[in-house]
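May I ask for a sample protein chain and its fold as tokens?
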Amino acid sequence: MEYKIRNMKFPKKKFKKINLFYHEYTDFLNKTLKNIDLKKLKLASDLIEKKILKNKTIFVCGNGGSAAISNHFVCDYIKLLRLHTNLKPKVISLSTNVEVITAISNDFSYDKIFSSQLEYLAKKNDLLILISSSGNSKNIVNAIDYCKKNKIQTIGLSGFKGGYLDKHSTIGINFKSENYGISEDSHHILMHVIMQYLRLKFLKKKINQTIF
């Protein structure tokens, strides 16, 4: 049985050697990263910093590979961002609890796995970071709509043409790539860039250890 993956696009030509494909892939990744809107990057970084300093909760969510990036957010922001700084981020991934996700999916709808958790956990002026290559997944759309109604700010990381996520987030950052790998790599890199930048900004003193 064959499965069609929506929006998945690979290079049409074949490559006889992996090193040739590697160079083409990384060249395209570099071009995608360089086309980011730097003003929106600053706005996103400033908003994350503001929420941390005000002791607000930052939620993160995504499907599939984007779920893995969401969970990685928690790891790096809780473990590394506080190292040698006074920052104490509160970060929760809505993609991590399989019991909650399957219960909501089974009893209500998979489209509500994020918005339902926000109903239970989120408060006014918290922040939700949404990661979606297409930007149009129904559970992402529902989460965005819930946040708009309940005064929860959002940062949307998207690929392809950005979709609903890019248009309706408080701050939308779109990486214009129609390849899932490039899109997810870009989102992952952006997560690391903002986290390491904030850590460097708030380091309490010079340290001898390598920080990258």
